[in-house]
Specification:
The chain is built from eleven helices and 17 strands. It has helices spanning 3-7, 60-68, 96-117, 140-148, 165-174, 188-192, 205-209, 215-220, 303-331, 349-361, 382-390; strands at residues 19-24, 30-39, 44-51, 53-56, 87-90, 127-131, 155-160, 197-203, 224-230, 236-245, 253-255, 272-278, 281-286, 298-300, 341-344, 399-406, 410-418. Helices cover 29% and strands 25% of the residues. It has a nine-stranded mixed β-sheet, sandwiched between helices. Strands 10-17-16-15 form a four-stranded mixed β-sheet, with helices on both faces. It has a two-stranded antiparallel sheet with strand order 4-5.
Length: 422
């Protein structure tokens, strides 16, 4: 990383000015920090943060070694600073019931804070779309929304597409060409046009790591959440987007599904299953290549395996969406318009740097800032947090690209125009 990248996250998140910190009274007590961000010129606000004790790259190995039951050797100890991560947040051991209670409590607080930062009363929220890799319980979002004061009649959609879940939710909310299963309307975006929508990712990955024995996963992942409010067609306008899926045949990133899925695969059929789970609730569930029994909740290939899994197809997905964006700009008579910034899933710094270099070879260049040094890989929350950290810099009519990719393997890329408050 260069000095500019590191300056985005100068220290532990809880110590940042503007972060509200409280202790959730579950187990021995779990610290929670939330920062609210509002950009009144574009009419968007939101909230992001983390929960659990903060571990830096010096103290983390001891936590990892307790989980593994043995010491990390030099080969097993990752150079995490080189990968863009300085801190992670982890919770203490809890009972299954305490895990559910904690994740409902934290998610409820993030939803309420995001609504407040957007200038909305929770009761006025029309829809909530949240990505979560492995939810603690099936009705987690419904319970969290109720705790936040969001009405029963508000649409609630959980998206389980691993690290792609947050951007996938944004694509569903904005992209009128995207249809999926039995979600409401001719497209969900058509249904949500002009409505108040909370979108984001909320990831309690520390719970998942308690059942994980992969030394890479234990060092990379942590807890984090990012949620913001949009009014599709007004504060954020769809320009171009795409979604892509291809099954991870080799099992380069294996994830245990904690959500219902038939686990069936059929030639030419989507890996995504959409289920209505309540009068106003839906689950979008992506098939994962799961670890063998006894192997733990997450199993990862080596660093080159992650590059193989995400870079080639990830670059192709961005190129396809960017091509549609360029065509639209030409049709509108503004061929010189460009993407102001790309907010990309923070898998690790080297992967994102390699994606940027490969795109540059094809003449595609835009800023891809690295913004999550103090969180680690927080899966579906990472691009959402990155957007919120960049939000104060955005101006009306600027064009922004969101790039999500995750285990499974799933990709969503969406280009948007920032709207305004009026």
């Amino acid at each position: 990383m260069n000095e500019t990248d590191q300056a985005a996250s100068p220290g532990p998140f809880f110590a940042r000015p503007g972060v509200a910190v409280e202790t959730i009274p579950i187990g021995p007590g779990v610290p929670l920090g939330i920062e609210q961000i509002t950009n009144s010129s574009v009419g968007i606000g939101g909230a992001y943060g983390a929960w659990g004790a903060c571990y830096d790259n010096v103290t983390l190995p001891e936590l990892v070694e307790r989980q593994l039951g043995h010491a990390l050797d030099d080969e097993g100890r990752m150079n995490l600073a080189e990968l863009g991560f300085l801190y992670r947040h982890h919770i203490p051991p809890l009972s299954p019931q305490e895990h559910v209670a904690l994740e409902v409590q934290t998610a409820g607080r993030f939803l309420a804070a995001a609504a407040a930062a957007s200038g909305w009363a929770p009761a006025d929220v029309d829809a909530v779309l949240i990505g979560a890799t492995t939810p603690a319980t099936d009705d987690w979002l419904e319970r969290a929304a109720a705790l936040a004061g969001i009405g029963d009649a508000a649409l609630k959609v959980t998206i389980h597409k691993a690290c792609d879940g947050g951007v996938a939710g944004l694509n569903l909310a904005l992209n009128p060409t995207l249809t999926m299963g039995n979600l409401p309307g001719p497209s969900l975006a058509a249904e949500l046009l002009g409505k108040r929508v909370l979108v984001g990712g909320i990831e309690g990955l520390s719970r998942v790591l308690g059942a994980t024995y992969d030394r890479q996963a234990l060092q990379l992942f942590g807890n984090g959440a990012g949620v913001f409010g949009v009014i599709p067609g007004r504060t954020m306008k769809f320009l171009a987007g795409d979604t892509f899926e291809t099954y991870d045949e080799e099992g380069l990133l294996q994830v245990r599904m904690s959500y219902p899925h038939s686990r069936r695969r059929a030639e030419g059929q989507s890996l995504i299953e959409v289920t209505q789970t309540g009068a106003h609730s839906y689950r979008v569930a992506g098939l994962q290549h799961e670890p063998e029994e006894g192997a733990g909740a997450v199993v990862m290939a080596g660093p080159m395996g992650m590059v193989k899994l995400f870079v080639r197809t990830g670059v192709a997905a961005v190129k396809r969406a960017y091509g549609a964006y360029r065509n639209l700009m030409a049709q509108q008579g503004t061929p010189g318009r460009e993407i102001a910034v790309a907010l990309v899933h923070h898998a690790n710094y080297k992967i994102n740097q390699l994606k940027a270099k490969q795109l540059q070879r094809d003449g595609i260049t835009f800023p891809m800032p690295w913004l999550l040094c103090d969180f680690g890989n927080v899966s579906a929350a990472s691009a959402m947090i990155a957007f919120l950290r960049w939000l104060p810099s955005l101006a009306p009519a600027e064009h922004v690209l969101f790039d999500g990719f995750g285990a499974g393997t799933y990709y969503d890329v969406v280009a948007v125009e920032m709207g305004g408050a009026s």
